[in-house]
Design a protein that fits this description.
Chain lengths: ~110, ~300
Amino acid sequence: MLGTNLKHIKSEEEFNEVIKNNENVMICCGRMGPMCLPVYDVMENLEEKYENVKFYDMDFDIPEAHVLRNHQLARGFMGLPFTFYFKNGKAVKATSSIQNKKQIKSIIEEYLV
Amino acid sequence: MNAEHYDAIVLGAGAAGLSAGIYLARANLKTLIINEGSIGGQMVLTHAVANYPGVREASGREISQVMKNQAKEFGCDIESNVEITKLDLTSKKKMVEIDDDEIFTADVMILATGGKPRKLGAKNEDKFKGLGISYCATCDGDFYTGKDVIVVGGGNSALEEAVSLTKWVKSITVIHQFDNFQAHEYAIEQAEKNSKISFILESKITEYLGEQNVEGVIIQNQKTGEFSELKTDGVFVYIGYIPNTDKLKDVIHLNEREEVLSDENMQTNIKGVFVAGDVREKKYRQITTAVSDGTIAALSAIEYLQS
Ligand SMILES: Cc1cc2nc3c(=O)[nH]c(=O)nc-3n(C[C@H](O)[C@H](O)[C@H](O)COP(=O)(O)OP(=O)(O)OC[C@H]3O[C@@H](n4cnc5c(N)ncnc54)[C@H](O)[C@@H]3O)c2cc1C
């Protein structure tokens, strides 16, 4: 489990539940490294601003994270974290490596809310 | 756009900025820390810190997590991983705009923007970030398991990271622009005796090649000027740190290395603007010296506000 203040997804079932039961979901799959931490910081900050988006993290190194590690949208990704955006259960966007607040906000605005 | 006013704004949430934030907030000043990168700055890149007194040994991330929580618990607000789109340091009321979106003002400002890894400036560098170009072996090394990679640089971090990458990769080519290394003897020795590491000296990467991911690079020999192509699965870049002063340089006095000049109380050339940490002109860049600078800058700022 990652040491962030976000909600964590710990299993495949939980992952399926989360994307099924919520219209807008952002999941950051990473470690506690310098490229991942800034993304978690932004998510913690945005959690207060976007009430209709759910923010989760997932530990890249647990076997269950294969749902994101091997996701079709993550093909060719070589940098952590892998960040996914889901709308009505479907992945609509994914990014590799660090993203800043502005980039994350603009993806949320374009694809989710 | 409405502006939110603070007593003090600190730019940068590394060791210097967080220390300043702790002192300012404890003095009951309404304090905001605005940070462009990750909270903790360079500390989060450090695997094990053994020379920070009072902490026997901890990862840089653990130390920064405690500093961040201390600052927050004393009441600091933190905006992190944002971009500063406007900055006014010269007016009496200082102003920062972030992400073209939010404006904050303050009576004093502390500049603690630290340093960042120098980029190569080769063609397609931004396109392949996270897709074959990395600045952190501990973060991304395992993606390159069994692959051929390049490490760029000739200092301690380049050679030490090259050796640490050999855990994962099949081969490493170290590319360095000069004909000798700036690293310590022991680092050079470790790299030279490792059979996975080979060297191309007096050469620079001028372009990254590939479709979605890096597949090769163009190298220019610095002596002959000749270009050649080298296939690779990834490139790790370690060519030093530069001070984060691009947004300050029009108004703040810098030295020829673009580091901020100050007096011993961390006062810059502008009234009400103080500086702390790696971004200032100084000889020793450590967590201890950043914390010390942050403390002095905050105490000077508090005295300035009271006067
Ligand atoms: C690999 C590595 C290992 C190290 N090991 C040790 C060690 O073992 N012991 C030790 O004492 N020191 C070590 N150091 C040095 C130490 O980490 C630094 O000296 C210290 O952390 C600097 O702190 P700082 O707050 O001045 O700057 P930084 O840590 O660079 O923090 C500055 C922050 O400001 C942000 N920023 C940049 N521009 C802006 C802007 N315009 N506006 C707002 N924010 C901005 C940056 O993103 C960053 O988050 C190491 C450094 C590295 C790179």
